[in-house]
UniProtKB/TrEMBL annotation:
The chain crosses the membrane at residues 33-51, 97-118, 139-160, 180-206, 227-245, 286-307. This is ABC transporter permease subunit. Residues 93-308 form the ABC transmembrane type-1 domain. The keyword Transmembrane helix applies. It comes from Paenibacillus sepulcri.
Amino acid sequence: MSGRIEPMGSLIQRADPHKNRRRLLSRVKKDKWLLLLVLPGLIYFIVFKYLPMWGLLIAFKNYQPFLGFFKSEWVGLDNFRQFIQDPIFLNLMRNTFLLGLYDMIFFFPAPLVLALMLNEIRISGYKRFIQTLIYVPHFISMVIVASISFLLLTTEGGVINELLFKLLGHRFDFLTSEAWFRPMIIGQTIWKEAGWGTIIFLAALAGVDQEQYEASIVDGASRLRQLWHITLPAIRGTIVVLLILRTGNFLDRGFEQVLLMGNALNREVANVFDTYVYTVGITQGAFSYSTAAGLFKAAIGIMLVLLSNYLAKRAGHPGIY
């Protein structure tokens, strides 16, 4: 007789669903306050993240408000074909892809570098002051950031432009130039979010075994060698996980930021998926077409996460699942 013989205890446990139910209720009662803390976040995700997914079905319909959600004509993939065949599609893909690429190259390493620099500060009071200082921009509205950028970069009395005029003899059209639009967007993102992004890296750095540093000092290792051979390998898993999650937002360029910094003179490079969905869907009323464009972008993001997670696991890292 072949087959695996299960322990008697597991068979009794499986055959007694009432006992399992009582055990579950007991755990719920024991952890009721923790579960109560989870409840607001759970309700938020259900109401604002999961329930709205039902509306994605209009991407496969010719949605007409007067016919309603259920009576509108089902058109299948016609909206997706129309979007991909639209002459503006390549321009949208190029602009969004380049901003995403610059974000990965320049912004993603910024919180890591900043966290490593903060980790080298030994005066705790000074370290906390610097952390507070670099966290503040995260809480500033993007409207305020755009206003500050305008005041600093405008050719009509902007502080930076006036300084450049005194040093170089001429002003730069930062706000209206297509060449300066992408560096300006990435610069704003780094200034606003790099400090906030250091939180996870600093938490990972706090868990590095200090005995390794002590042993390396005995061996005569410099601070740079300690950074390369101890610190970075110790937080490599955190870096990989955050990189995988960041790829999911590769095509998400921040609607508000791009909309505020875009204008008629730099529109050729400022038109991305997020602003296009807003323009076509809200201002022109093409609800099904704009939903299809947004769903296309989301599908690309999911595929990038799956691909990056697969590559990370092939390289020997745990990944996110």
